[in-house]
């Protein structure tokens, strides 16, 4: 897929350059509209803004996004299965470094990946995902996400999203400024000549402010859809089991009611669920093509190679997707059997999975675990005042040891 | 302008572009070859990881089972054999590792009859690690073969095959297990 990766890198550079020019141009226009002769100042401010935002977005975009989604990093011991799945996919995709793994305490199943390059990747999944999907399906989802990192999609999309945000912000600031206080400057400017030109520039600036964000958003959506199919193709090739990703997509898209899984880790101690109504971990990657399409393409694959995906895609959609260089296969690649059919694999039931996930969340929330001899496992919240706790079943008193 | 000068400029530009392409193609081949080497090393890493898990597994199982000394012994022997074969050829290694896989598979089947052991937390964690390691070996092999394919394609396709010929890049061989059946765990129906 070298052509695609190189294309993504190239596009990122082009995007940055075009955005710089657009921003500086807009800054100049706005500066001129506000006070004649101030176009240089406007341009300069826009350039500085662009520089700061580019650097921040490139180096800290990941951290910002993860923090805003409420993601918390976990270690190998917190959830060995998830860790193993990610490591397996890391090997299959050839990433040079193990991605960091984050958990989002949300009952709706979803996942995303961030990473400016394969060396600094992070993948986040929701608790709902771990509860609802079995190993094959989780592996499919992780493979898809790591494919995004591998193809440098994340870099490009993150820059694009940042730029759109900035355009929207600038437009908003300008319109607000105009609405509340720009009138004064205009009257001063009309004293000399050039009142006509001033008015036209003002009009252009307003138009830019309104249309800019919309156009950027449309462009962004159009680009994202193709990338999702590409990530599907790569993900299926990594796992050698397209059905895993297909049934995972089915389960995630179904998105049933959230009642049962309402944050059991926090519920006992809070009156109002602190994450109620917060966005699920979708954010950047909510611009997806129709899920039924993606499932259909995956399920009509004859084998498990990129060429098979291309064939299925052509059948379903008509056009081609992958560049021809990546379609050469020396030998056919078969689909592997599902984990469910392999003997001697650990196969936790949904209840066991749910318990494993909520235990992990409790640990992350700094709850203390105490195993009472009568069989009850006490989970003591971090804010608990006393250092002794009584078992509700057998009334034995336990000391709380905080690590 | 003097037509000679124009001609010289054109030729110079063409030569520069050609050189740039040459450098790019060579670097691409080197990158793929290194990726192949790393993929091979990755298989090594996972195989070693499996060796390291086995003593712990044998100890845990020994604590719970009385009559399975023979199966455990075979696992330990297969492990030693695989470690010894690590210096040998690809085919020898594949053979030894395949036998270790089937010895482990037989052990897993035997363990099915001991519910106490199956419920033991330690054993469950070990089983997860072992399964994951087997998966990882599989994926490492997969990635190695994918990389070999990419590399071979690059070497054989025009125009990079010219560069490959000049600098003597050799095709990579695929890592196939001689007998796929030797890898599968025997399925026993009770």
Question: Can you tell me about this structure?
Answer:
- The complex is a heterodimer of chains A (403) and B (190).
- Chain A has 403 residues and is α+β, with helices and mostly antiparallel strands.
- Chain A has helices at residues 2-34, 39-68, 80-93, 127-132, 135-150, 153-180, 183-189, 195-239, 242-254, 291-299, 306-317, 350-364, and strands at 71-74, 100-104, 111-114, 122-126, 368-371, 377-380, 388-390, 397-399.
- A 4-stranded mixed β-sheet of chain A has the order 1-2-4-3, sandwiched between helices. In chain A, strands 5-6 form a two-stranded antiparallel ribbon. Chain A has a two-stranded antiparallel sheet with strand order 7-8.
- In chain A, strand 5 and strand 6 form a beta hairpin.
- In chain A, helix 1 (2-34) runs parallel beside helix 6 (153-180), helix 3 crosses helix 5 (135-150) and helix 10 packs across helix 11 (306-317).
- The model of chain A is unreliable at 187-193 and 256-287 (pLDDT under 50).
- Chain B has 190 residues and is mostly helical.
- Chain B contains 6 helices and no strands.
- Chain B has helices at 3-64, 69-84, 90-111, 115-119, 121-156, 160-167.
- Chain A binds chain B through residues 2, 80-81, 84-85, 87-89, 91-94, 237-238, 240, 325, 328-330, 343-346, and chain B through 28, 35, 39, 42, 46, 105, 108-109, 112, 124-125, 127-129, 131-132, 135-136, 139-140, 142-143, 146-147, 149, 152-153, 157, 185, 187.
Number of strands of chain A: 8
Cα separation of the termini of chain B: 92 Å
Structural class of chain A: alpha+beta
Average of per-residue pLDDT values of chain A: 73
The CATH topology of chain B is de novo design (two linked rop proteins)
Gyration radius of chain B, rounded: 25 Å
């Amino acid at each position: 897929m070298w052509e695609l990766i190189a294309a993504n890198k190239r596009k990122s550079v082009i995007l940055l350059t075009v955005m710089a020019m657009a921003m500086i141009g807009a800054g100049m226009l706005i500066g001129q509209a506000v006070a004649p002769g101030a176009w240089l100042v406007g341009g300069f401010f826009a350039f500085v803004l662009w520089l700061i935002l580019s650097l921040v977005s490139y180096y800290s975009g990941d951290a910002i996004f993860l923090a805003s989604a409420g993601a918390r990093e976990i270690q190998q011991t917190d959830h060995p299965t998830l860790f193993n799945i990610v490591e397996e996919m890391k090997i299959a995709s050839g990433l040079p470094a193990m991605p960091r793994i984050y958990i989002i305490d949300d009952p709706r199943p979803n996942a995303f990946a961030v990473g400016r390059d394969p060396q600094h990747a992070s993948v986040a999944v929701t608790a709902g995902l771990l509860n609802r999907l079995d190993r094959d399906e989780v592996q499919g989802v992780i493979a898809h996400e790591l494919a995004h990192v591998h193809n440098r999609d994340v870099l490009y999309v993150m820059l694009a999203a940042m730029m759109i945000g900035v355009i929207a912000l600038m437009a908003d600031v300008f319109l607000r400024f105009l609405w509340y206080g720009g009138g004064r400057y205009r009257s001063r400017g009309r004293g000399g000549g050039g009142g006509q030109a001033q008015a036209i520039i003002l009009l252009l600036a307003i138009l830019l402010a309104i249309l800019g964000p919309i156009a950027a958003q449309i462009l962004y959506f159009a680009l994202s859809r193709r990338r999702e199919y590409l990530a599907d193709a790569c993900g299926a090739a990594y796992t050698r089991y397209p059905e895993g990703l297909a049934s995972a997509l089915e389960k995630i898209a179904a998105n049933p009611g959230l009642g049962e899984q309402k944050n059991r880790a926090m519920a006992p101690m809070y009156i109002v669920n602190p994450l109620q109504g917060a966005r699920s971990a979708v954010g950047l990657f909510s611009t997806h093509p129709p899920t039924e399409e993606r499932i259909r393409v995956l399920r009509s694959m004859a084998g498990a190679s990129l060429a098979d995906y291309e064939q299925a895609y052509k059948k379903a959609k008509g056009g081609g997707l992958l560049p021809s260089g990546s379609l050469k296969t020396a030998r056919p690649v078969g689909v592997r059997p599902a984990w469910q059919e392999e003997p001697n694999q650990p196969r936790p039931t949904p209840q066991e999975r749910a318990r494993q996930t909520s235990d992990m969340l409790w640990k992350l929330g700094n709850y203390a675990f105490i195993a009472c001899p009568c069989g009850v496992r006490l989970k003591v919240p971090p804010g608990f005042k006393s250092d002794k706790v009584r078992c509700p079943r057998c009334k034995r008193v336990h000391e709380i040891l905080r690590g | 302008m003097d037509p000679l000068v124009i001609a010289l400029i054109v030729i110079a530009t063409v030569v520069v572009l050609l050189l740039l392409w040459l450098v790019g193609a060579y670097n691409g081949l080197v990158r793929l070859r290194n990726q192949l080497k790393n993929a091979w090393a990755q298989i090594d890493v996972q195989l070693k990881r499996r060796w390291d898990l086995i003593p712990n597994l044998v100890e845990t199982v020994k604590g719970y089972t009385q009559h399975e000394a023979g199966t455990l012994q075979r696992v330990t022997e297969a492990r030693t054999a695989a470690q010894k074969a690590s210096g040998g050829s690809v085919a020898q290694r594949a053979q030894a590792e395949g036998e270790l896989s089937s010895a482990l598979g037989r052990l897993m089947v035997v363990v099915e009859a001991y519910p106490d052991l199956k419920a033991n937390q330690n054993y469950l964690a070990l089983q997860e690690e072992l399964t994951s390691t087997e998966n990882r070996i599989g994926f490492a092999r997969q990635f190695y073969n994918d990389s070999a394919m990419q590399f071979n394609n690059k070497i054989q396709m025009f125009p990079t095959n010219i560069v490959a010929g000049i600098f003597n890049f050799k095709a990579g061989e695929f890592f196939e297990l001689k007998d796929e059946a030797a890898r599968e765990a025997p399925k026993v129906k009770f």
